[in-house]
Model the fold of this input.
Amino acid sequence: MIPYGKQAICQADIDAVLEVLQSDFLTQGPKVPEFEAKVADHVGAKHALAVNSATSALHIACLALGLEDGDWLWTTPITFVASANCGLYCGAKVDFVDIDPQTYNLCPQKLAEKLEQAKQEDRLPKVLVAVHLSGQPCDMEAIHKLGQQYGFRIIEDASHAIGGKYKGEFIGSGRYSDITVFSFHPVKIVTTAEGGMALTNSDELASRMNLLRSHGVTRDQSLMTHEPDGPWYYQQVDLGFNYRMTELQAALGVSQMDRLDAFVARRHELAKRYDHLLAYLPVTTPWQHPDSYSGLHLYVIRLQLDNISRNHRQVFESLREQGIGVNLHYIPVHTQPYYQAMGFTAEDFPEALAYYREAISLPMFQGMTDEQQKEVINALKSALSTGGG
Ligand SMILES: *Cc1c(COP(=O)(O)O)cnc(C)c1O
Done:
């Protein structure tokens, strides 16, 4: 089976992890700050806070922005459930903005319309989670402008987008948002096995997230509410969690970051070849924003079903039967049973639903060979054809 995504681990990665195992610290040592500094320097952010997953990063990002009971968080329906669940963790309510049919990202025009209506109904969002689907950046300039106008805060869920650029700057630079989140799950671009990171240029948000990732406990006197009893003293000043990243994970991350540019470059080579090889097939290839450089976590095609005699499911199943580990990113979040129970119906976001009925993620990972890519194309040709299998 050719998987849709796969980590690339080299000897240097293995050596880096082994070195930590033989050191004094398995957690809370020097590697986590080293990894944070490396990512922050690379993307041009002031602060980076490593945590045990992007889901945890989204949670503490929402809390740091003051999201609470009765507030609204808005995001796109075409994302992993974690982009929405972080709002529910904070007691907030979640709503969605339909996608743009060309970029598959949250549509800024629909956002503007929904905000105008929400303003009249006095239910404006406090936080918007902008997801850079497949690594393709959202129209952050437009979203940021709306944020200024309607007073909401912005989290970029850049789980797919490390190493990508928007208008000449690395995603994570924070020019158009409050906090950016990366994921280091093995299918993503850079991995730490499990892991995530929250980046911000705000000292205050960084300080809050730092507290929240480790029990709300501090040894920093400037954060304490009264004088320490003695040198042993620590103080719990907030209700936090244990969301810390281990030294083993951070060492892997430091080592992987050396190859980030090469990883993304290889993904772009593969995408160009896919674009070329798929040009004459009844599928829509991913649109690339002229102002941006995608991280290309995913390569999503949409079937032109009017020109194909098979249906979406048949094409998908045929690919799997032929050993191609295709996937579907994503089942619209608002159609999940947990969200349906909140009153959403599938038709609430028609572009998201139309996308879901046509989308297939083809294999895309840095270690993919040209030969494997040809196999994918041949399997797809066969899956799309009327005859056989
Ligand atoms: C993978 C992913 C997450 C969650 O990342 P974890 O590190 O697994 O918690 C969140 N949002 C998006 C868009 C993702 O793809």
Summary: The radius of gyration is 22 Å. Residues 286 and 292 are 13 Å apart (CA to CA). The longest strand covers residues 47-51. The mean pLDDT is 97.
